[in-house]
Write a structure and sequence with these properties.
Elements (H helix, E strand, L loop, with lengths): L3 E5 L5 H10 L3 E6 L5 H6 L3 E4 L10 H6 L4 E4 L13 H13 L5 E7 L8 E3 L10 H14 L5 E7 L1 E3 L5 H5 L3 E2 L9 E3 H13 L6 E4 L7 H12 L5 E2 L8 E3 L2 H6 L11
Parallel strand pairs: 1-2, 1-4, 2-3, 4-5, 5-7, 6-13, 7-11, 8-10, 9-12
Length: about 270
């Protein structure tokens, strides 16, 4: 019998991931917070659920959502830049409690390289963690909530900045004056490879693991975004910062050297 895979958060990454598993013949459950999006999920062959998750409560539908689920992908990023910033950790605690009340035990937690903070130089999964933003701090605490639970087989994937169809950082950065200098490393990953990392984790049973997921080329922001702006006819960002620090270069050491994973889609194309 095919595994049932549930994806909590069918957004820009979660929806194409869910569709890929439907095409491969899996039973797929997917969640959204938008009633208008339920039809889109159902048309794609996904069993759709409207689930609202906040620091105060979680939808009762979460229990039906988790029934019969072999693998759960948690793809719910923090919303901490808005005026009404949430307590992301408390949200994840409520989710963790719901998972423990179910029979689902295999978890993929989509995290971010922001948990490393402003480290200088090469960064691997063994590097010291010094999150410098509230988002990074709450992500790290949430990672540990799942990864340190011995009753779960939880794998954490720390993604670099996501780019792909209709989504590229240059659209947000175009014409802006950035506080850093331009000789800072980029840490990005294409949507196609982000999906492939999750697929490989599930296919090869890479549970209780921690992976960085960043494309293994790290051009400087100044050069990279200038080229990307030119391709699209946009104004490149400017940089007013000074100094010699080049920021962190996040290496996908365990994926590449231990698991022999190959990244297929260049961030430069």
């Amino acid at each position: 019998m095919s595994k049932c895979i549930a994806i909590l958060g069918c957004g820009w990454l979660g929806l194409p991931l869910a569709i890929s598993y439907v095409r491969d013949g899996f039973k797929v459950k997917g969640s959204t917070t938008s009633p208008e999006k339920l039809g889109l999920l159902e048309e794609a062959g996904i069993l759709a659920y409207k689930i609202s998750l906040s620091e105060e409560a979680i939808s009762a539908e979460i229990h039906d959502f988790l029934v019969g689920v072999d693998i759960l992908v948690i793809n719910v990023p923090p919303k901490l830049r808005q005026r009404n910033a949430e307590n992301y950790v408390e949200k994840m605690r409520r989710l963790h409690k719901a998972i423990k009340a179910s029979k689902t035990r295999k978890i993929i937690f989509a995290s971010s390289t922001s948990v490393y903070g402003e480290i200088e130089g090469e960064v691997t999964e063994d590097s010291v963690l010094r999150p410098s933003t509230e988002s990074g701090r709450q992500l790290l605490e949430s990672e540990r909530l799942f990864a340190e639970d011995s009753e779960l087989g939880a794998t954490v994937i720390r993604f670099g900045g996501l780019l792909g169809p209709k989504r590229h950082p240059i659209h947000m950065l175009s014409g802006k004056i950035l506080p850093t200098h331009g000789r800072v490393f980029t840490n990005l990953i294409h949507l196609n490879d982000a999906i492939r990392v999750i697929q490989a984790t599930i296919a090869h049973n890479w549970w209780n693991q921690l992976f960085n997921a960043v494309y293994p080329e790290h051009p400087f922001k100044e050069e990279y975004y200038a080229k990307e702006a030119e391709k699209r006819g946009l104004i490149p960002p400017k940089y007013k910062g000074k100094g010699s620090k080049m920021g962190k270069k996040v290496l996908s050491s365990r994926l590449i050297h231990v698991k022999k994973f190959s990244f297929n889609t260049s961030i430069l194309s």
